[in-house]
Amino acid sequence: MTSVGWRARPRRLQVWARGDGTARPTRRGRRRYHSAVPTHPDHPTLHVSDHPAVLHKLALLRDVTTEHKKFRELVREISWLVGYEALADARLAPVTVRTPLEETEGRRLADRIGLVPILRAGLGMVDAMLELMPTAQVWHLGLFRDERTLRPVEYYNKLPDHATVDVCLILDPMLATGGSATAAIDVLKDWGATRIKLVNLIAAPEGVNAVVKAHPDVSIHVAALDRGLNEKGYIMPGLGDAGDRQFGTGHS
Ligand code: PRP
Ligand code: URA
Asked: Pocket of ligand 2, candidates 150, 232, 235: which has the most ligand atoms within 8 Å of its Cβ, to mutate?
């Protein structure tokens, strides 16, 4: 396995679907959609957004002078954009609809989507994802990172006995050491989830490598891949503490 490092992103967007962005029918008659976001050159499961709207909002999000209200708005807006990209391969089923003029064939979402925000910072990503996928179920997982050991501590889990969704999207703005994400994926796999995606705003190479090593089947969708972690486990250049900046707590 190749380690993921911080490097300049490819400048041109690569699109594997047809040029107009539509899907190619497969032999079985089902359509397979391809993400418009290319995977990172070092690893096939990492998608780093290159969208100008994402990059513009990301600079505002990182800015230390961005106050809490604006910060929350930006978390929501970037989550929408990255979440949209992450859901590009959701499965569809045909549906017949009647327009005012005639009947036509449309598509409806066939996958049951589960959103799993990691408390507390992941909460800020939920509304955007529910706008995108209004029928999604939301299952909360409470994990915090022990400041001394940097290991995740689980404090809230109300998942029912068996998985009730087809695809789980884990929502957490930060992927630092990868401890929290790896633990969340372990919990979801024990629950019976088979298709899991990790949606983050900012990731460190250390966190990506940890998730890829433990869970090579999980795709990771991020707005940015940063340089690395500092001695306290914070992502550099990062944005500071994502929970504190959203909720006005702490000193960052
Ligand atoms: C942050 C963040 C992730 C975790 C990432 O949460 O939201 O859950 O740290 O770090 P890791 O990749 O090293 O595990 P934090 O523990 O600060 O809790 P909070 O959301 O309650 O602020
Ligand atoms: N959690 C955060 O909120 N920020 C970091 O940089 C790392 C972990």
From this structure: 235
As beta bridge partners, residue 141 has: 118, 157
Which atom in ligand 1 lies closest to the alpha carbon of residue 180?
14
Give the residue, out of 227, 229, 234, 251, with the most ligand 2 atoms within 8 A of its beta carbon, to mutate for a pocket test. 234
Q: Give the separation between CA 140 and CA 155, rounded to whole angstroms.
A: 11
Q: What is the pLDDT of residue 104?
A: 98
Q: Which tens digit of pLDDT belongs to each residue from 14-53?
A: 333 333 333 333 334 344 444 567 777 777 899 999 999 9
Whether 120 shows a pLDDT value over 60: the answer reads yes
Q: State how far the Cα of 221 lies from the Cα of 86, in Å rounded to an integer.
A: 6
C-alpha span between 57 and 42 (Å, rounded): 25
HSE of 247, CA atoms in CB hemisphere, 13 A: 13
Catalytic hit among 9, 31, 145, 227: 145
DSSP type of residue 227:
S
Residue 75 identity (one-letter amino acid): V
C-alpha 114 – ligand 1 centre gap (Å): 20
What's the token pair of residue 117?
A: 């925000």
Closest residue (by CA) to atom 2 of ligand 2?
241
Cβ-contact 18, 219 below 8 angstroms = no
DSSP state of 79: H
